[in-house]
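Example A, followed by Example B.
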Amino acid sequence: MKREHNYPIGTPGTPWGDEEKAQWLAQTTIKRSYQEEVVRKINALENDFDITQYGALSYDEEKYPLFAIKTRHWDSNKPIVLVTGGVHGYETSGVHGALTFAEAKAAQYSEQFNIVVAPCVSPWGYEVINRWNPNTVDPNRAFYADSPSEEAASLMAMVDSLGGEVLVHIDLHETTDTDELEFRPAREARDGKLFIEDGVPDGFYTVGDSENPQPEFQKAIIDSVRKVTHIAPPDADGNIIGSPVQQEGVINYPLKALSLCNGITACTYGTTTEVYPDSERATPEQCNDAQVAAITGALDYVIKQLG
C-alpha cells in the first residue's frame, strides 16, 4: 500500500504563501561550489571552444554567471545541436556529463554540427542540491514567455540568439531517491496537494515528446547507453514514473504543454535523459558516461539520417 506523507513546512491541503516559502528558503544551505566544480572546468575549455556568458542570476550575479560552450567556426549551413544540463541543479551527472561531452567528444562532431552546451542552467540549485530556485519555482516547469524562473528565461534568450533552427536538443537529467523523499513531497505541500509515494526506477530511461516521439532516435540512445549502464525496467503496471513505457526505457511527455526545457525549440530530434545515480549498480563515473553515451548515440543516429 502506498504511503501518504506530510511535508514539515506548511499546513496540509493549503498552498504555501510567502511565509512558508521564506521558511523553505531559510532551511537551504550551500553544499558545494559552482565556481570550483563547474566554472573552473568551463574555463579550462577556452582554448578549444568559444565560452560565452549569456546571463547571471540576480540572487548573486558574481557568484552565479551562466555560461554556454560553443564549437568554433560556426557555420550557418550546419544544423545546430543544443545540449543542456543542470536545469535541475541537484542532478549532478546532467552537469558533469555535459562538461565531459564538451571536453572529450564535442570536437569530433563539430564537422557535422554547430554545437552549444549549457552545462549548468541552475547554478544556485547546483550549490544547494535542490530542484527549485530560491523562489520555490521549478525551472523545468517554467519554459514559457514571461517565465518566473530567471534560469529558464536566460536559457530561452540564449537559444533565441543562436540565429538558426535547432535540429537536436538533448536535455540531461537524473531521477534520484530524493525525488520521492524530498522534492515531490515539497512540491505537493507547496501546491496544497496530498503526496502519495510512487517509486524511483532503477536505471536509465529517456523522455520523448508525445507530439514528436521519434522512436528510432530514442532507441538509438538506449542502445548506446546500455553499453555503459543498465536500462530502467517498467514497474508492475508497465509504467516508468507513472507514464506508460513506449519501448524499452522510453516514455513520452507533452513537452511544450508542461513547459519543459526540451520543448523550447522546434527541434526534429529531442530527448530528456534520466540517469539513476542512487543505484547500487552505478557509480558517479558511470552516470556521467551514460550521459555522454546518450549524446553520442543521438548524434550518431542523426548523422546517419542526414547522410
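Example B, a separate protein, is given below in the same form.
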Amino acid sequence: MPRTDARAPGLFRVYCRATAMLAPLAYRSVARKLRAHDVPEARIAERMGHATEPAPGGPLIWFHAASVGESLSVLTLIARMGDRLPQAQFLITSGTATSAQLIARRMPPRTRHQFAPLDAPGPVGRFLSHWRPRAAVFVESELWPLMLARTRDSGARLALVNARLSMKSVDGWRRFPDTARFVLGCFSLMLTQNDRARRDLLAMGADPDRVHTGGNLKSTSDPLPVDEETLAAMQTALGDRPLWIAASTHPGEEEQVVAAHARVLERHPDACLILAPRHPERSAEVTALIERAGMSNARRSAGELPDDTSQVYLADTLGELGTWYALAPIVFLGGSLREIGGHNPFEPASAGAAILTGPHVTNFAETFAPLIATGGAVEVADADDLAAAVLRWLGNPAPLATARTAARDFAIRRQEALSDIVDRLCTALELG
C-alpha cells in the first residue's frame, strides 16, 4: 500500500521531517534512561527499530502500551486473544525498563516484548520491515502520528483500546482538526474507557461509526500473581496482628499515611502497615520518613520479614502487589490524595480487599463512583479521614467483611466484559 504522506495534512509532513532530524537527540535521551536501569545496549537499540528477536512465523498481532499500567492491562487481553486465535503470535512494545521487567514476569504464551521504536521514519520503518504485523492495537493515549500512519500503510489494521485522553491533549489536537482526523482515521476501531472519552474522540474528528464505549480494560485483567511462599512466610511472621496496606503511594502521600498509622497504633499498638511506594527506588526517602515518625520498620528489598516490633513493613520491590493484596483486608490506594489521578482499584478488589481512596481519581472516575456506591470502597480526604476509616473497619469485622465482598463482586462483574472486547477486536481487525 502506498504511503499517505502526499495527501496527508501539511502539519503531518512537517512532523515527519522534524522527527527524522531529531531522532538521534531523542535516542540519546531515552538510551540514557534505559542504561540507568542496566538495560543491555542491544535492547536499547530497539528504540531505533533494531529488533533483537527474529520475526515469528504465522500472523503477528502487535500491542503497544507506553507505561507500566497500560502494559499490564493488556496482558490478559493478549492471553484471551491467544485462546481465540491459536495460530497467532503476539508482540508487545513499551517504552520503559520497569514495564519490560514486569511484562517479562507475566508474558502470555506466544508473546515477545520489544522496546517501542521512536516515532521517526528510520526507527518505525526498520521496526515494521522486520515484524510485519497483520494488526496493531494501541492502548490508552499513544497517538504517535507517524507510527500510526506507517503501520496503516503497511497493510495492517489498527485499533485503539482503553482510550483516554487528558483535556490538555484533546484541546491540543482540536487546534489542528485536519491532522487529528487524519491520525484518528488510521484506526478501524476505537474503544474508549468511558462516555466522556468517546465524546472527546468525536470532538477531535473521529468517525462515529468506529468509536464505541468499551469500558476500562484494567477491569478485565486477571488477578495479580501471588507468591505463595512469600505469602505463607508473611502470614507466619504477622500472625493475627491488625494489618492494612498503603499501595502505590507518591511523595506527599506517605507523610499522611504514616500520620494515619500513628493514630491506628494508639488504638491497636500491635498493628502493622505494609507501605508499598509506587516507585520502589524511593526506598531510602520513605525509610527516612518512617524513622522520623519514630516507627520501627523492616524492608522487603533487604530480604527482611516483619518481626513483633515492626510497625511498618516497607514493600520496596516491584511485581509483588498481588502478594500484599492477598495478605491484608484493607488497602488504601495512593495517587489519590494528590492530583495524580489514582490507581487501579480492580487489583485489590479482585483480591477481596476493602478499598480506601482519596478524592483525586480522574484516571478511574468511571470506576470509583460505582465501587463506592456498592460499599466496596470509601473516599477519604486526609490523614485524619484515613485513620478513622481504617480504625472503623479494624474494629468492626462484619462491616469489613461486607465491604470486602462488595469489592470482590464488583471486580468479578467487570471481568465479564473481556469477551465482548475480544469479539470487537477480532471483527474490526479481520482476525477471524
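On Example B: The longest helix spans residues 10-35.
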